[in-house]
């Protein structure tokens, strides 16, 4: 008796609640990785709740085996067993939104033809019951020829019936080997019309539903999708999110900042003078603390993006913004990837796989890093706090907040302009939008928490690995070799970092960068926020100013034009190797990646020089 | 791909319209799916996807509203599901006014 875990694949339309089922079945034990070659998230995990061992794979949402996007192609390849390095699934779990049966059943009937063992899960059974929809699951099971169960993914025990069905099918499938299905076998035999006729017969026989009435959902949509009221709502929602990111995070950030400051002081006071004390206080604690402080902002931003996504609101936003975005060669579908890029360009670029038009997808990838990601915030807030006075403008706006707003807008406007320019050199052939607007749904706290936990973990892992290592390397670079006996200047001037910074400095001369700023650019290639800890390290080690806040130090050593040029550089520069690596994988093209890197560096150089020269001319 | 006009004989005799010419709040019955040269070689794919999503001759739907520039895109409710379509996709859907019961 082998106890090899059977492999179950979750298949279904986008928005059918597949991922909630996945989260509920695998709990916190899911692994998120990437498929080789394409950066489509591969989510797998062992199932808890079944008697027999089972492995679950969550596939990207798809409407059809006749694919129209990269996401759908991945789902198809895995279902058929054609994905390289991925064994064919033993059993398909087809998830259908019970409140939206017709659309889901069409895919189910298509899947049924493949001959793989299958379970049909009617999800959101509670919502269907609430609307007065009654489904004869036994009748449906007999008619289609697969087990049918009702599920409520948002409830703790809502998946018991599914687990039982999985156990039963495991007993039957014990000694069979899942096969690879060829394209020829998968090709459609039946016309869409006859499939839908079949569905009409099924629903007529086994489903009773009250006539379609105007619900609160429709009333909400009338407002949310209204050309004027809807756009105002969207604007207010986005404004509130950004307000929350800054206002709500502040107390927690102060707390983290204060704790690290206290820890550093304690180390400085407790340990004897020497290399260990320098390393702990200036290298390690200052470096890691300077980055960890931004965790609250990142969590809050991701919280809102997940909330809007789960509630169904983001597709309404895509609907409203489709026409304006088309003006620059994008579509409403690019809105979600670009909004995610405000948190981090990497999930944003990965989310472009849902964009069916390959040309639009490339443009969205190219401009995604121009959306101000959360890693830039540390750099922005540091420099703004140091150089921009906190004064009221026109009575209501704070000059610091306004500067930040301008930086965000600079990114958005540049992205629009670049997208428009890139579209010019491409042929114009229409691509359909065809976007489903899913029913509004109250987001599940469990699902939100799992999503946030995943993102937080990714960030903390970066702090614990890349950022920690770079803090150490940077501290070493800026500490060794030590100054010769009798030297008068700051010790860092004699170190390796000092030499490297001075070597780079002539290139950055036209934008007024000092060699310390050049040093900070090097580790910022690993992650932008490291620039802050790098500056902390460079200046804390360089001068005898550890007691002073880093901002004050910068305020004394940089001029305003230099600071503005540094900000301009960070708006554009592709200062993140991970993003470049993701672009390489997503586009699968060396020339596209090279173009991406070069055009962004060129923009950064141009705007930093322009900012510096103009600011210098204006101020003198 | 030839669109299969179902029961055009029994549909109300009216000037043929396509979905992009309809007003907000109208309830319409699909008569056939037309070709749209703007999609080029993709056109058959778009027709297929429309059908897969339930835009089939004989099915009725309601126009929910429009986006804010040039009445584009438009939102429809078909068999209980809402979709956003651009005018170019909507122009592929020939419709007739539904008889009010």
Structural notes for this entry:
- The complex is a heterodimer of chains A (620) and B (101).
- Chain A is built from 27 helices and twelve strands.
- With 620 residues, chain A is of the alpha/beta class.
- In chain A, strands 2-3-4-1-5-6-8 form a seven-stranded mixed beta sheet, sandwiched between helices. In chain A, strands 7-9 form a two-stranded antiparallel sheet. A two-stranded antiparallel sheet of chain A has the order 10-11.
- Chain B has one domain (17-97): Roll (SH3 type barrels), CATH 2.30.30.
- The longest helix of chain B has 10 residues, at 43-52.
- By secondary structure, chain B is mostly beta strands.
- Chain B has a six-stranded antiparallel beta sheet.
List the helices and strands and how they pair.
The complex is a heterodimer of chains A (620) and B (101).
Chain A (H helix, E strand, L loop, with lengths): L5 E7 L5 H9 L4 E4 L6 E6 L7 E5 L11 H11 L10 E7 L3 H12 L5 E6 L1 H6 L3 E2 L1 H8 L3 E3 L9 H13 L10 H4 L5 H15 E2 L7 H9 L4 H19 L1 H22 L4 H18 L2 H17 L1 H14 L8 H6 L4 H7 L6 H10 L8 H12 L4 E2 L3 E2 H26 L10 E3 L7 H35 L16 H13 L6 H10 L5 H13 L7 H8 L2 H13 L4 H11 L2 H30 L1
Helix pairs in contact in A: 3-8, 10-13, 11-12, 11-13, 12-20, 12-23, 13-20, 16-26, 17-19, 18-19, 18-24, 18-25, 19-25, 20-23, 21-22, 22-23, 25-27, 26-27
Chain B lengths: L16 E2 L8 E7 L9 H10 L7 E10 L2 E7 L2 E5 L1 H4 L2 E5 L4
Antiparallel strand pairs in B: 1-6, 2-3, 2-6, 3-4, 4-5
